[in-house]
Each structure stands twice: as C-alpha cells, then as structure tokens.
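Handout, page 2. Input:
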Amino acid sequence: MRSPVPQVASIRDFYTFEQHVMTCRRQRGLAMVEGWYQVPVFYFSNPAGVVQNDQEVWAPRGSFELDFELELACVIGQEARDLPADDRALEAVLGFTIMNDWSARDLQRLEMSVGLGPSKGKDFATSLGPEVVGMDELAGCYRDGRLHLEMTATRNGQQLSRGNSGSMHWTWPQLLAHASRDATLRPGDIIGSGTVGTGCILELTPQAAGGWLEPGDVIELSIERLGTLRNRVVAHP
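Output:
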C-alpha cells in the first residue's frame, strides 16, 4: 500500500486545474484558450533532475525568480499502452505521491515567448515524495475519476496555498489515456496533475507571497493521506 518512490523513467506534467490556468492568464491580460478544454496538455520534464524529500534545491544559473508548484503525481506501476479513459486505466498505476514542479520563472518566461518550452526553466529540479501511496489506501477519496484530497503549501511555516485535488478539470483516467495514446507507459513514469489553484508564487503574485524563493527558505507541500514533501532552498553551489 505504501512504497518508496521508484527510479523515475520519465515525467509528464499536465495542466489540469482551471483556477490556476485562468488566474495566471488573467494576470497577463489573456483569456482562456479554448483548446485547453478540448485536450489535456502536458510537457515532458527531466527524470535526471528528480529531488527526494528533505534534499536541497537551488535556482539554476541566471535565475532570480525561483518558484514552487503544489501538485499531485501518479506513479505508473506496469507497462501500458492505449489505456481506456475510464477507471480500468488505474490498473496500470502503482500509486500517488506529492510533486513539487520547481520553476525558474524568468528563464521560463523568456523560453516560452518563443513559443516552445518550458525547458531550462523547469528541468533543473522536480521533487517527489515522501512515499508512494497505493489506491487501496486512497479508494475512499476517489470518485468521478478524481482524488479528493486537501493540499497545502507552506513557506518557512507560513501557509501560502490551499486547494483540493478534486478540483481538477480533467480526470485521472483521461490523463492516463491521453499519455498512453500511441505511446508506451513504463514502470516509474510520473504523471503530474499540474498546479492546484493558489499553488505557486506566480499565481499568488510575488507581492502577496513575500517575494520569490531565496536561499534559506523551507517549502513544505502537504497532501491529505500522502504526507509532507519538504525541501530547503540553498544558494547555487
């Protein structure tokens, strides 16, 4: 029912919480993209950049806008391809864990202004942990294709974010079906939910959150039944 986070094979991070997407776009004077409601989009991140619970994290060179992102992640437990978009897709799942999709917002902003990415704004670190919790233990929180779990993020003990994973627009079977369409999922693949509403400094705004992250900050992401994922920010070595 519980296991350590396995060696990560790949990371697909989706974009499934409407509140997060809508708020971040509104801050830039942009309306929602209609395509977001038609297909669950994701980007690939770097499995070599995985950071474990209680390990240190630093901003990549040239970045001064380090951010956290509060996410739920699904861990694939067996090889699968072309999964159905219903609860049968969960047979390929080992369990769920907490994910911090660390982001260098200044690097990301420049990259994505070209119409591609994110890449170096993301691939330096992705935290996962503290453990993987199986569906046997989460079944009572699963309905309508979603896990309904309270999620919070704190910075140096002060709560910045609160949301619920049940507010996802897309369901987990839909994400699994899309990720596995004409592609093989393998044990150790990570499927990220995307950032829950209020779940990052970019959405909250640096002014409201006390600025971008700095060396010495401790970020703790907690999800009901999954525990707490903790990392300290340090200066670049």
